[in-house]
Amino acid sequence: MTQMAQEEIVSNTKTVMQGLEALRVEHMTLMNNLAEGSKNDPDKMEIVKRNMENIELGLSEAQVIVMLFAHLQNIEAEKQKLRTQVKRLCQENVWLRDELAITQQKLQASEQSVAQLEEEKKHLEFMASVKKYDEIQENEDNLEKSRTDPVVELFPEDEAEERNNMSPTPPNQFANHANAGYEIPARLRTLHNLVIQYASQGRYEVAVPLCKQALEDLEKTSGHDHPDVATMLNILALVYRDQNKYKEAANLLNDALTIREKTLGENHPAVAATLNNLAVLYGKRGKYKDAEPLCKRALEIRENVLGKSHPDVAKQLNNLALLCQNQAKYEEVEMYYKRALEIYEMKLGGDDPNVAKTLNNLASCYLKQGKYKEAEMLYKEVLTRAHEREFGAINGENKPIWQVAEEREENKLKNRENTPYGEYGGWHKAAKVDSPTVTTTLKNLGALYRRQGKYEAADTLEDCALRSKKEALDLVKQSKVLGVADDNKRQKSGNSKEDNEDHNKRVHK
């Protein structure tokens, strides 16, 4: 009713405007006639002028009414649009509340089972440690098969940093590296984190529809060829990859690559990130020849944009080296690893974890070629640097763990008892050998010693790695329990000494 009244007012106003316009024309004619007449009548001229002023005033007011009506129509349209958005937000809020309630219920159930799972894990680790010393050494062929070199095992792709990375990608790295060189809008970051949370829980039935709905909304509002659409395509591709749907993931990444090249330029860092992710995906499928040119192009972009000495360039070199290593291109592999080492040591310093990782990768390349001496030197370099960071320069009384292991190997026939483990058993804890890279180095060097027949040295390093891992897990468990009693600590320390003595007896039995 109100809307119809407004329309009638405006229609009548327009009619009045037409009439006033006609009157204004007539009065203009009268004024001209009076001005040209032989008898000048001032009274009539004054009356005509007053009428003209009233007509002009009426026309102005009528125009204001018409403009006000148009403004009210725009306000009403905007209000309807806002009401629709509020309604949609309310629906999304209700859905998120339901999801939060379900997640809280699952969290409570998980917390109840933590204690039981920790006990089971502790028992399994104990059984594994016992089994380790009872196993017969496998032949070199089986050992070689067990030492695979999966692509980007130590250096995952960029968006993945976002399962951090690609087995499943851990959420922290996934989010950090999702779009190198491209700022993700806040609304997409929130959705991104929600998707990663669901994917990390294995709830793909929620994560995939959420991605698809967001992708559909973005394409409607921004069009298909938009950087935000490319971001969502990358996220959905990573979710598919974690489900081993490699074909679907590759199609999405290729689509995202096309969009980013078109909208951001062929030499943009985000293009390099997508190229790297696509190369990693091909590498996981064993398509190393297809992956290599993509990785090289990503390297070229990063060199041009970031400079040839940037740490991200070193990371790309590691990925390229791993791809070439799976194709037995060992000369190229050594060149890429050595260049990556130079960059890391120059930009991040020799103590940076990436230096130790790259040294391990280069040693793996040497092992593939049968260059055992070169590999051994690199493993020792990693362990020596870790020791020097904690205890200073090496001397006769300050020895790294590999030197202790070799001395035990040399003295095994002279002194069956050897130096007790207690004299060096705390080294791995103080020198942070429980870090993944150094623990891996201990295992690798131990395996190399075993290949050379140095079983006493191998047992020393492998036992150190095993104990460092076990103690790291125990420390994590203790940190979760408040008010641990002192007698429990003393009992644990006593048990560790008894375990060391029992192991020495078994080794020298």
From TrEMBL:
GO terms for molecular function: kinesin binding. Residues 479-509 are annotated as: Disordered. TPR repeats lie at residues 230-263, 272-305, 356-389. One of its GO terms (biological process) is microtubule-based movement. Pfam families: TPR_10 (PF13374), TPR_12 (PF13424). The keyword Coiled coil applies. Keywords: Coiled coil, Cytoplasm, Cytoskeleton, Microtubule, Motor protein, Repeat, TPR repeat. GO terms for cellular component: cytoplasm; kinesin complex; microtubule. It is found in: Cytoplasm, Cytoskeleton. Gene3D superfamilies: Tetratricopeptide repeat domain. Belongs to the kinesin light chain family. This is Kinesin light chain. It comes from Anopheles sinensis.
